[in-house]
Specification:
coiled coil, mainly alpha, single chain, 3 helices, elongated, Coiled coil domain-containing protein, Receptor-associated Protein
Length: 98
C-alpha cells in the first residue's frame, strides 16, 4: 500500500469513527433532558468536555487531510491521541450516565 493510500484509508477510518462518536455524544446529550437537576449539571459538564475533545479531533483530522505525504505520519500520533481522549471520555460518560 502506498503512503498516500494508507493516509487516505486512515483518514476515512477516523472520519467514520468520528461520525459514530458524534452520534453517541448526541445520545448522551439527549439524556441531559431526562436527568435530575444534579445529574443534569454533571452531565452537561461532561457533554461540554466531549464537545471540546470532538472539536480537537476534528481539527486534527482536518490537519491530517491537508498534510503532505511526509508530514502525515507526524500528525498521525496526534490523531491517535485525540481519538483515544475522545473514546475514553465517551466511555466514561456511558458508564456514569448510561
Amino acid at each position: 500500500m502506498s503512503e498516500m493510500s494508507e493516509r487516505d484509508a486512515y483518514i476515512e477510518k477516523a472520519k467514520a469513527q468520528l461520525d459514530q462518536w458524534n452520534a453517541e455524544i448526541d445520545r448522551i446529550e439527549a439524556r441531559t433532558r431526562e436527568a435530575s437537576a444534579d445529574g443534569e449539571t454533571a452531565l452537561r459538564g461532561m457533554v461540554q468536555d466531549l464537545h471540546g475533545k470532538r472539536d480537537a479531533l476534528e481539527q486534527r483530522l482536518n490537519e491530517t487531510r491537508q498534510s503532505g505525504e511526509l508530514a502525515w505520519s507526524d500528525l498521525k500520533a496526534g490523531m491517535d491521541s485525540a481519538c483515544k481522549n475522545l473514546s475514553d471520555a465517551i466511555e466514561e460518560a456511558r458508564s456514569r450516565f448510561g
